[in-house]
Write a structure and sequence with these properties.
The protein is mainly alpha-helical and 90 residues long. Helix content is 53%, strand content 11%. It folds into two domains: 5-52; 60-90, no CATH class. Helix 1 (8-15) packs across helix 2 (19-28). The mean pLDDT is 84.
Length: 90
């Protein structure tokens, strides 16, 4: 049976991260992939092995002011916004 090959877009979707990050990992050799011309493909078994090794998607850090701006832009339910404000220590 032939193993399924994933595109960087499919891997990014599975990991809830950007395609750019997946491609960076491929270029850096962190994630094993096969290059076919200009296109990358990732074996499902290579993705599973990568995840077992403990490499996790990079987390973004946001400042308190950025979080507050997100809350304003999202126009959250006032009760939820109040709970989040309390969590932020306001």
């Amino acid at each position: 049976m032939v193993e399924r090959l994933l595109t960087p877009e499919e891997v990014a979707k599975k990991l809830a991260m950007s395609v750019k990050s997946v491609r960076n990992w491929l270029r850096q050799g962190k994630l094993k992939g096969i290059k076919v011309g200009r296109l990358w493909r990732i074996r499902e078994s290579d993705l599973e092995e990568f995840l077992k090794m403990g490499e996790s998607p990079p987390l973004r850090s946001y400042s308190k002011s950025q979080i507050e701006e997100f809350l304003k832009l999202d126009k959250l339910d006032p009760r939820l916004a109040e709970k989040l404000e309390r969590l932020l220590g306001r």
